[in-house]
Amino acid sequence: MHLVSNDIENYIEQFSSEEDEVLGELSRETHLKIQMPQMVSGNIQGQFLEMISNLIQPKRILEIGTFTGYSAIALAKGLSDAGILYTIDVNEELQPMCARYFEKTNLSSKIKHLIGDARKIIPELNETFDLVFIDADKINYANYYDLVFDKVRPGGYIIADNVLWSGKVLEDKKDKDTLAIHQYNQKIASDSRVKSFILPLRDGLNIVQKLG
Fold first, then answer.
1. Which domains does the chain have, with CATH numbers?
2. Over residues 90-103, mean pLDDT
3. How high is the mean pLDDT of the chain?
4. pTM for this predicted structure
5. Is 19 helix (H, G, I), strand (E, B) or coil?
6. Which of 94, 107, 45 is nearest to 68 (CA)?
């Protein structure tokens, strides 16, 4: 997932705000105990998500792909006073760990952690979202986009993670995940209903604003 050198990443960390203490603890536990710990958002991406959320002051956020809860916490910090974040994941084994950290950050009342197939859960959510964050199985990125689009308010945002896929999107021969991400980026670029750009932060974020 390194699109910039380690030295640049270290420089960015040095001159950015310090990581929230509880999020730092969550990141350490993830790296010590959980398989594929590189999936955790980390400080810089977390700071970005928190800042975006603070700017929007969303009433409703949908996250697809919880993992250990780092990005859910970062996003939930920007919720309006009565705001709610829904986060969906298929892995129920990580739910207790997520719940523990949601409690530590005093965000349990603002986060609804749903376990199951997002393709089945999303249609059942009777909500209008200000912000959607997609960070789940890459094969279904386009499906998730289609499922959430009509549930996003005009002017709202859809952010998808890992859209540069360690630079693999540039390769001629693409595996199925890389191809799915590339096709997702193509889909967004050709969608006249939105404005979008790709931010080369960490592994790439495709940021979409739904037009009115």
1. 6-210 (3.40.50.150)
2. 97
3. 96
4. 0.96
5. coil
6. 94
Looking at the chain, how many residues does it have?
212
Which has more confidence, 150 or 6?
150
Q: CB neighbours of 151 closer than 8 A, spacing ≥ 6? A: 62, 122, 125, 127, 128, 129
User: Which amino acid, one-letter code, is at 164?
Assistant: L
Could you tell me the end-to-end alpha-carbon distance of the chain, in angstroms, rounded to an integer? Answer: 34
In 3D space, the residue among 47, 40, 78, 79 whose CA is nearest the CA of residue 162 turns out to be 40
Residue 29: burial class (beta carbons within 10 Å; 0-12, 13-18, 19+)? middle
Contact between 127 and 152 under an 8 Å Cβ cutoff? The reply is: no
Q: Is the dihedral of CA 179, 85, 156, 198 positive or negative?
A: negative
Angle at Cα 136 formed by Cα 94 and Cα 138, nearest 5°? Answer: 145
The CA angle 41-23-162, to the nearest 5 degrees, is 5
Strand, coil or helix: 152 = strand
3-state secondary structure of 36: coil
Alpha-carbon distance values, 146 to 73, 85, 90, 134, 168 (Å) = 25, 20, 19, 12, 24
pLDDT score recorded for residue 1: 55
The β-bridge relationship of strands 205-210 and 129-134 is: unpaired
Q: How many whole angstroms separate alpha carbon 15 and alpha carbon 159?
A: 25
